[in-house]
Amino acid sequence: MDSNSISEPKSNGVKKGGARIIVDDNDEGLSPTDLSEMLAEGTKESHDRAENCQFVKDFLRGHIIKDVFKRATAALYFVYSAMEEEIEKNKDHPHIAPIYFPAELHRREALARDLEYFYGADWESQISLSAGTKPYVDRIHEVGEADPVLLVAHSYTRYMGDLSGGQILKKVAQRALKLPASGEGLNFYQFKGITSHRGFKQLYRSRMNELELDPEAKQRIVDESNRAFGFNMMVFSELEEIGNTIKEEVQEQVSGHAELIQEDDFNKCPYYAAKMAANGNPTYALQLVKTLVGRLPCQVALAAWVAIFAGFTAWYLL
């Protein structure tokens, strides 16, 4: 092939305004001063911290509590509602218009369908803005009103993450929560207007790099993106605390139920304790001995069983 020839750009299948958007898959022309590269490098530590927080690690292992997942969906609904409201208000802003892709990216309606699946038709009356999510929502409204260029940071942080790691989370959640293969409850992760995630991400980054921004403005966007990661981690921490509380409540209920069985039902039915002890549970084994010793007729039976066991042991050793 002629080294001077130029490869044909590839289509990523995304349409806007009735025209097919063409994007070149070649990233070799990127510069360290391009906004996409500054964001990738400047948010690396924040990205790593977010990925390694306990909530995300548990999620990736499939340790997902359905109630916590529902609350996470509600938190995302408030975040995306705020972000997309401000993007819509500023869609003609010179720094927002080039990355304005409502049909391809906006998540509010998808999240509403997920919340209806989890909570029912009256889902709006069952959710509220949590203390851990409110600072995030407030900040989005603040920058949308006073400094719209910083919406670029929030848009990049959320949407690019959804098109990347979010697809892994979708598969984990579907398996762990046994959600329908039809995608109900997971509409948030489905970008039906995008046929190639990789191609669209390249398009989006190229649009960001074309924004007319001085070095100071670019750095402010990087700083705001790090701040967005911080807000996301606040939401994760809140969800983790809720999950821990649910686990403790369940554990207390189970412990209380076990105590009722041990103190009451064992005395009524020592055969149940014998069955559980045979399955290798030491708690039930100790309770069985305690129950039997406490009953005179059972003392004789216990002594007989001990004698028989000793006899078999002696026979086996000989």
TrEMBL record:
SUPFAM superfamilies: Heme oxygenase-like. The keyword Electron transport does not apply. Keywords: Heme, Iron, Metal-binding, Oxidoreductase. Pfam families: Heme_oxygenase (PF01126). It comes from the Eukaryota. InterPro entries: Haem_Oase, Haem_Oase-like, Haem_Oase-like_multi-hlx, Haem_oxygenase_CS. This is heme oxygenase (biliverdin-producing). It comes from Poecilia mexicana. The lineage of its organism: Eukaryota, Metazoa, Chordata, Craniata, Vertebrata.
